[in-house]
Amino acid sequence: MSHSYNKLWIHAIWATKERMPLINSVAEPKIHQFISEQFRESGCPVRIINGMSDHIHCLFLLNPQKSITEVIKQVKGSSSHYINQNDLTVEKFYGKQVMLHILFLNPL
Questions:
Q1: In a domain, 2, yes or no
Q2: pTM: predicted TM-score of the whole model, two decimal places
Q3: Domains in the chain: how many in total?
């Protein structure tokens, strides 16, 4: 019986709408924690999450049972909702652009 091994690390970058500096130093750790929890709930462990006032970087291991689109859509939507519901930014928060870098790891 043949088995496959998947280990896809995804480097996702979320940018705010028009790259506005909406993420302040008080809100940043709360947002990072929430996003990390959302990935964990999707079965996608986060290696590191960080960012600046206008974007967030996240490196996570993709759950082989989920598609990249499904995971990103869920995390992006829930994090925008969380930010707006908790008034973590002065203006309404819109996550605009998501860029992905996919790292394929070959087991030895």
A1: no
A2: 0.84
A3: 1
